[in-house]
Amino acid sequence: MFDAVFFDLDGTLVDTESLAVTTGLRAFAEVGHRVDEGFMHGLVGKAGPQAAEIIRGHMPGIDLEAFHAAWRVSFDGAIEGGLPLKPGATQLLEMIEHPLGLVTSTGREGAHHKLGLAGIAHHFRTVVTFDDVRHPKPAPEPYLLAAERLGVDPARCLVFEDSDVGAEAAHRAGCVVVQVPDVAPTDGRFARHLAEDLLAGARAAGLI
Question: How far apart are CA 71 and CA 28, in angstroms?
């Protein structure tokens, strides 16, 4: 049924989105701009430049460099203490016999660092990061590139995503999308299957 399976990283395989929200709230407060969780949810799945544009639009006077420095210190400290996987992630990765790819809006260095901390890098034949594309999610380019690298038809690829941004990218690329929501609510409009966890999504798609 499928020739390859692709996974998003943050919020899909690794439980970093809740940490990002918590540490982001703290960093905004440190630079004198308090925001709520709803605002942080609006940044979920966005690549750096997209998130920066949203932040500038909401608070034009913010010192973005100071904010990002504060957020980076707080977030890096949090994940160095351990990077938990989402429920069923290890089991599912070990069960799948198809070629696997990782497609993330995180930069190359950060993505590989997280994969190393989580101990799952060996599962993936290709890793597509923000640094590998001109047009990040929600554009389809990241998933089209992943399919090209593995020599498969995007229409025969199954994708696991948590955010609407990522699900839209995979949908526009022509992939079959399983969406497992994390911190941000969704109506699943870009997903073929909306599931409560990775294993349930894999079953719904007929992968396992």
Answer: 8
Among 60, 80, 100, the domain boundary falls at 80
pLDDT at residue 47, rounded to an integer: 75
Integer-rounded Cα Rg, in Å, for the chain is 17
Angle at 207 between CA 106 and CA 123, to 5 degrees: 40
Q: What's the CA angle centered on 89, arms 106 and 15, to 5 degrees?
A: 50
Cα(27)–Cα(85) distance, integer angstroms: 24
**Cα(97)–Cα(93) distance, integer angstroms:** 9
What is the mean pLDDT, run by run of 10 residues, along the chain of 208 residues? 97 88 89 88 78 89 89 85 90 97 95 93 98 97 98 98 96 98 90 98 98
Torsion of CA 117, 111, 100, 200, to 10 degrees: 70
Between CA 18 and CA 90 the distance in angstroms is: 19
On whether both 67 and 108 belong to a single domain, the answer is no
Q: How many CB atoms lie within 10 A of CB 49?
A: 10
Residue range of the domain that includes 68: 17-80
Do 67 and 96 lie in one domain? The reply is no
